[in-house]
Amino acid sequence: MRHWTLLRHLGATALAAAVLLGVTSVLDPFRDYQLATAAAYLCAAAGLTVLTGLNGQLSLGHGALMAVGAYTVALVQNGFGAHDVGTQWTVPVSLAAGVGAAAASGAVIGVAAARLRGPYLAGLTLVVAVAVPAVTTVFGGVFHGDQGLSVYLPPTPAALGEDFPVERWQAWLALCAALLTLLLLANLIRSRFGRTLRAVRDDEVAARLAGIPVARTQVLAFVVSAACAGLGGGMFAVLAQSVSPGAFALTLSLNLLLAVVVGGLGSLAGAVWGSLLLVLLPYLTDTLTSSLALSPALTQRLAGNLPLAVFGLLLVIVMIAAPGGIQGLLNRAGRWARGRRHNRPVRRVDPSAHDAESPPPVATHT
User: Fold this and answer.
1) Three-state SS string across 220-261, please?
2) In the list 25, 54, 156, 277, which could disulfide-bond 197, CB 3.0-4.6 Å?
3) How many C-beta atoms lie closer than 10 Å to residue 130's C-beta?
4) What is the pLDDT at residue 74?
């Protein structure tokens, strides 16, 4: 059964990769960049789905974990550039370093988080979300403060041609990272560890009585989620070719949590919908504000606050109309459609009518 699950996930990943390869080939460079940004968001949102949706730990600091991954990738890539190492294998090595640094940070936070519950855990992760970007200002000699770091990247592979769009290459990298994340997490959820995560989420006392190490499970969940966030942050560094503390503010952590809830808490497919919304909503609101005759000051103020307000309004609507999020609504629609297909109307039979071939009723006498 486990091998069939792995093969099914591998087949779905290969099919998705083939479809996305064709999609990126027909999109213009701007759309490819949008798709790459959604894929980077997806890495972090999928990890947050495992932590919050499957293990029940609320985190408001995943933007800070993304910053750890992004700055690690920037420092490692710039180190390669300083030594004139410009081959393509430097990017996977830098991303692996960013994942490791974020996972180590997640282990430290997870040890403290395993002793906290509810608002205390949210407060701890909120402090992390505020403190990590501030570290870049304190150690300005390394991280260049608010100015941030530029990221050295090797050029597009020569085998793709001189006219190959850089945005398409970036989309391929980000989509590979997102598909790899989804593949690993999908198998993790179906494994024994995934069942352990759900058991701890549902009832910690019962899980502890069943012999499950609750604290260790929660720490491991934080490590896995932080590693995914580090990969997403590293991909942001690759896409933007620069990192700065302003890109990883508290708003990013809130947006990730809103995306997971609106998309469908506890579902990897819901993380996909939420990541697409994180990219599409700011674009749509910017298009709306630019089409209106507003003053430059009001336009600038709306540019930063309107997407978050729309996201919050969408969250309220989804929680009222579809508590399971977008994916939960789609699942309910699918079950309704299958029920309509299988529940065909049955022809009623008149009980007074008898089949011509059936024998007549036998009279009995008392």
Assistant:
1) HHHHHHHHHHHHHHHHHHHHHCEECHHHHCHHHHHHHHHHHH
2) 54
3) 16
4) 94
